[in-house]
C-alpha cells in the first residue's frame, strides 16, 4: 500500500517537496498538500506589483493549475497538528499521515515595531505592495526612509548577500587541481609563500 505523506503549507517548501515526491516516488507515496489559499506567488513578483509593472492577479499561480501525479491539493485551513500521531486537523476534516511535513512558513508581525503600522508601508504582502505602489505614484519629493526592521528576515536575500562573498572563498578553498591532484594554492597563499621564501632566503644568506 502507498504511504501517505501529508504536507501542510503549499509555499516554496511544500510545493518543492510535493513536486519531488511526485516525480521520484509516485509509485510509493500519495501526497496530500494542504493550504488555506487557492494560489501561490513568488516573493520577488511583489516588486513587479509595487512598481506597477504587473497587476496582483497576474502574479498569482493557482493551485488548481498545478497537476502533479499522486498529489491532492485540498484548500483548507490547518487548525491543529498532533505530531506524535502525525495527525492534521483542518477546518474541513482530519488527515492521518505516515509522514508529516510542516511547511507553514512565517507570519508577519508589523505591530511589533511601534508606529510602523500607522505611518509606514511594507511590501511583504500583495496588499502591501499595492498600497505602496499607489503611494509612490503620488510621491514627487521628500525623504524616503527604507528600513529593515529587525530579525528574522523572511526573505533569504540576506543569505544571498552572504553567498555572494562565498564564491571567492570557495574558489580559493577548492582551487584548481594540478596534474599531481593537489590543489593549486590561491593567489593570496602564493603571495604568502613567496614572502616566506624571501624571508627564509634572507635569513639563510646571513
Ligand atoms: C518581497 C519578498 C521577496 C522575496 N524574494 C525572494 C527571493 O528573491 N529569493 C528567495 O529565495 N526568497 C525570497 N523571498 C523569501 C521567500 O518568499 C520565503 O523564504 C519562502 O516563501 C519561505 O518558504 P516556506 O515554504 O517556508 O513558507 P511560505 O512560502 O510562506 O509558505 C507557507 C504556506 O503555508 C500556508 N499556511 C500558513 N498557515 C496555514 C494554515 N494555518 N493552514 C493552511 N495553510 C497555511 C500559507 O498560505 C503558505 O502558502 C522573498 C520574500 C518576500 C516577502
CATH-level-4 superfamily name of the domain at 3-102 = FAD/NAD(P)-binding domain
CATH topology of the domain at 3-102: FAD/NAD(P)-binding domain
Biggest beta sheet attributes: 4 strands, parallel
Count the DSSP helices: 7
What is the name of the CATH class of the domain at 3-102?
Answer: Alpha Beta
Q: What's the helix-strand series? A: EHEEHHEEEEEEHHHH
N-end to C-end Cα span: 82 Å
Silhouette: extended
Strand tally is 9
**Which percent range describes the beta-strand content?**
15-25%
Low-confidence stretches: 157-183, 202-206
Radius of gyration: 26 Å
Helix content class: 25-40%
Your description of this structure?
The chain is an alpha/beta fold and 206 residues long. The protein has a domain at 3-102: FAD/NAD(P)-binding domain. It is 38% helix and 17% strand. The chain has 7 helices and 9 strands, in the order E-H-E-E-H-H-E-E-E-E-E-E-H-H-H-H. It has helices at 12-25, 45-50, 56-59, 116-119, 126-138, 157-174, 187-205; strands at residues 3-8, 29-34, 39-40, 61-62, 71-72, 78-82, 87-90, 94-96, 99-102. The strands form 3 sheets. A 4-stranded parallel β-sheet has the order 5-2-1-9, with helices on one face. It has a 3-stranded antiparallel β-sheet with strand order 6-7-8, with no helix packed on it. The chain has a two-stranded antiparallel sheet with strand order 3-4. Strand 7 (87-90) and strand 8 form a beta hairpin. The longest helix is centred in the last third of the chain and has 19 residues, at 187-205. The chain is extended, with a radius of gyration of 26 Å. The relative contact order is 0.12. The model is unreliable at 157-183 and 202-206 (pLDDT under 50). The structure holds flavin-adenine dinucleotide. Residues 9-14, 34-37, 43-44, 46, 77-78, 103-105, 123-124, 154-157 line the site of flavin-adenine dinucleotide. Flavin-adenine dinucleotide is lined by residues 9-14, 34-37, 43-44, 46, 77-78, 103-105, 123-124, 154-157.
